[in-house]
From TrEMBL:
A GO BP annotation: regulation of pentose-phosphate shunt
Lineage, uppermost ranks: Bacteria, Bacillati, Bacillota, Bacilli, Bacillales
Keyword NAD: no
Gene3D superfamilies: Phosphoglycerate mutase-like
Gene Ontology, cellular component aspect: cytosol
UniProt cross-references to Pfam families, sorted A to Z: His_Phos_1
Classification via InterPro entries: His_Pase_superF_clade-1 (IPR013078), His_PPase_superfam (IPR029033), PG/BPGM_mutase_AS (IPR001345), Phosphoglycerate_Mutase (IPR051695)
Species this protein is from: Anaerobacillus alkaliphilus
Name by which UniProt lists this protein: Histidine phosphatase family protein
Residues that bind substrate: R7, H8, G9, Q10, S11, T12, A13, N14, R57
Molecular function per GO: fructose-2,6-bisphosphate 2-phosphatase activity
């Protein structure tokens, strides 16, 4: 299986520095332009399935892939962003003021604050997604359009399994950043590239990412 993990284009919340989690925000003007460039990047690639998070910003991005691929976009709630509960809809500064235990260097994906998705729940979700992919798409080329938090944790899960949270995450996934992972017959992953966004250079459309 060849798996492309793709973060959605810039949203209006990304543009204003707001942490989204599962809160709905549409693509910004720049995000739509990034989506078009992403679609062009995939025009020469062969895909068998396109899955998208059921959140609007991911679904809108996935539609740009389907312009160049004769495929339906399939919503999948299991690849939604990490649930951040009371942190959603706030800037990083607002979060720090309201929740002093969350320092600037703390990952907001795994704070343990009541109402957020727990490490155990995230781990089960990663395992489920991986199992479904390996069971149903062993010989397919798949695009998953998801979110920066979920993609970065899923990559850590592929490398470290249930101990993913014991290790520092060494990367940030940018808007429409593409990660290509090949799975061998035994299910082991090989990483071809992480967060590739060369398609954005054409229009100088790279955007800043908030630290998760």
């Amino acid at each position: 299986m060849i798996l492309y993990l793709i973060r959605h284009g810039q949203s209006t919340a990304n543009e204003s520095g707001v942490i989204q989690g599962r809160k709905e925000f549409p693509l910004s003007v720049a995000g739509n332009k990034q989506g078009m460039l992403l679609g062009q990047f995939f025009a020469s690639k062969s895909l068998d399935y396109i899955y998208t998070s059921d959140l609007e910003r991911a679904h809108e991005t996935a539609k740009y892939l389907s312009v160049h691929q004769p495929l339906d976009v399939i919503p999948w709630d299991k690849i939604r962003e990490i649930g951040l509960g009371p942190l959603e809809g706030k800037t990083r500064n607002e979060i720090t003021l309201q929740f002093p235990e969350v320092h600037e260097t703390t990952s907001i994906l795994t704070t343990g604050i009541a109402g957020t998705e727990t490490v155990e729940e995230i781990t089960k979700r990663c395992q489920y997604v991986l199992d479904q992919l390996l069971t149903g798409h062993k010989r397919h080329r798949i695009a998953l359009v998801s979110h920066g938090g979920f993609i970065s944790i899923f990559l850590m899960y592929l490398m470290f399994g249930e101990k993913w949270n014991d290790t520092h995450r060494p990367f940030i996934i940018g808007n429409t950043g593409v990660t290509k992972v090949e799975f061998l017959e035994n299910g082991k992953p090989i990483f071809h590239y992480v967060n590739k966004d060369s398609h954005l250079l054409l229009g100088d459309m790279r955007s800043e990412s908030v630290l998760y």
